[in-house]
Design a protein that fits this description.
The protein has 21 helices and 28 strands. About 30% of the residues lie in helices and about 20% in strands. The strands form seven sheets. The protein has a six-stranded mixed beta sheet with strand order 12-17-16-15-13-14, sandwiched between helices. Among the domains are: about 30 residues; about 280 residues, Glycoside hydrolase, family 3, N-terminal domain (TIM Barrel), CATH 3.20.20; about 110 residues, Immunoglobulin-like (Sandwich), CATH 2.60.40.10. The relative contact order is 0.10. The chain is of the alpha/beta class and about 750 residues long. Strand 15, helix 19 and strand 16 form a beta-alpha-beta unit. It binds 1-deoxynojirimycin. 1-deoxynojirimycin binds next to strand 5.
Length: about 750
Amino acid sequence: MIFNWGYKVKYFFTGILFMCCYIITTAQSNLPIYKNIKINIEDRIKDLLSRMTIQEKILQTSQSYVGNNDNPNNINKEEILSNTNPQIGSLIYYSDDAKMRNAIQTKAMNTRLGIPILFGFDVIHGFKNLYPIPLAVGCSWNVNLYEQACMMAAKETYLAGINWTFSPMLDISRDPRWGRVSECYGEDVYTNAVFGVAAVKGYQGNGLSNPYSIAACLKHFVGYGLSEGGRDYTYTEISNQTLWDTYLIPYQQAINAGAITLMAGFNNLNGIPMIANHFLLTDIVKKRWQLPGFIVSDWNGVHQLIEQGNVLNNKEAALKAFKSGVDLDMTDDVYKDNLLPLLNEDKIRITELDSAVYRILKVKFMLGLFDNPYAPENIIDDSSTQLHDKLISEKLASESMVLLKNKNILPIDFKHIHNIAVIGPMSMDSLDLMGSWIGRGKEIDVTSVYTALKRKLNNVINISFAKGADFDGTDTTGFEDAYKAAMTADLCIICLGEKGIWSGENASRSSIELPYIQEQLIKMVSKAKKPIVLVLFNGRPLALKNIEPYADAILESWQPGTMGAFAVADILSGKSNPSGKLDITFPLTSGQIPIYYSMRPKARPSSGNYQDISTQPLYPFGYGLSYSKFAYDSIKLSSSHIKKEEHLIARINVQNISDKDGLETVLWYITDKTASITRPIKELRFFEKKEIKKNNTKTFIFDIDPLRDLSYPDADGNKILEPGEFIIEANGQKASFDLIE
Ligand code: NOJ
């Protein structure tokens, strides 16, 4: 009986299952093709395009924004809901409210065709939980950790209903006066490429339609980092050779890694504004590199073609930008207002409009927005996820920090140091620890350095505080308190630096020295004759010549994000061992700019220097100290010569000769001694970071593939691989080998 009954149940459920399948299949087959999840994306897009009116297509090429740009917390929901056009292609969403986002999306889904809106936002170094600024991240040389941080940011972003971030920024910058230097991974080509790829992988995960994945956007294509004089939005002059061997490389590699969208920069490049650069946007990015998704203009970039002196009016601007390859128009409504007349006048063909819309819809389909248009609501990350995220951001902050100087003062020796004075404008500051582009990060979630030190060290030492001075200005009334605090302390920790808004967009500075008042403060405190640890928080390299002599130790902490102050406390106390190395040169003075490690060799190597200062920077690219001591062996090569199709293995043993476990990064450089088109003095081609326990040795290996590591592009992007002598270098150790025919 039981046996029979079991069979009946089984048949019953099998029957139900078949019925369900039948209903679903029939229901799916009754759906228009573009709504049928079982059909491939290409056919779905074609079907949708065939149903769209011209006006609907044009709206897909427009992006607007919701929320108050200046005060994102002050969003008037009713106003937003009534004003938002549900047929718009994309919205920049200044909120973390998934419910309101879904309410807007519902309006879109209820339109004639139900095309979902693509919500985008600037998630540059985290969304709520901020990790260090990209310039700091490059100094960590920890690519896997960074990928995890981007994954964490993607999840927070996704849960707020945002599916697309305008990141990573791959504008190599060698001018620290430019505010946006904080958004790149330093001055080097390879470093920007590797971290850019990690960001793409972290954001986009294993597939764009997976929960918690968001689309990446490479920006600001290309050369924006070379803004004249470090001023923002200005002209850029870059030779084709430099474009190909420097500025294009990170973009190309990130597209190879699957980056789905790209933003055209504000800059005018060699006379052709990037928004109107058909060759680079269409011929290179879309055709040669096969960008899978679309190209968006930067904010008002299409309209700005008028300001840049390239076109007369918005209609001409729309025509130029559209024909050049910009598919989506960010915020200026120029496409929305002008594409129709341009189509009517046959200046733009409908097939051209279709291919732009195709690219935009493709990204929406790939993100799964047609099948899953709504963001999950009320999902609160549990405490273990939050803890995990905090650990990642704290670890990344710690590994990004660079110990620039240490006259045996750090880590703090608690046997002899009992009283510490924490002095300076950054000591009690939380907001500026986040830097620029703070997403939805909140000051209240960030602990100041003073508070972190108190929390971590209060039971071992006494900690006093005196602000001393503000970030800038001339008010020295706090100097006396600072001096008094120093007099009663055994050690002074002076926290100086930049406000978050001193870097990022439209935040250039004519000089990169700290403001005079901050320089005066450290000089004044030094009169107390107590050891000084200078802890810096800044979004660009600083010129420290004036104050370096007053500090016994200097820790470059950058703008380290939500958990940054704890990372500082742990490094100062010795709980963590600093392992960052600079991804950008610290000039001696502002007058040395531009100065970077990979300059091309001079005609007279020892002449042509400045008469008034050294030509050497204060801290070069790759510089950084540790509490451990590492001894480098000589480089061993698998051969003294190789052929183009062979590999060469370089090995170096690095010994930790101290009694502290530490992390060491080996930066491998290659010098091409003689080339038809001269090469930089040296170029970073590989790096690796490893833990080396005290008194242990680790072997670092660089597997050299000539085509990848010894070649260089010509001015058209063709790879050149020439026989000759090459030098390989790691931490000053050098070996040479020949590439033979
Ligand atoms: C302008 C900035 O240049 C760009 O980086 C950013 O992504 C957009 N605004 C959107 O906020």
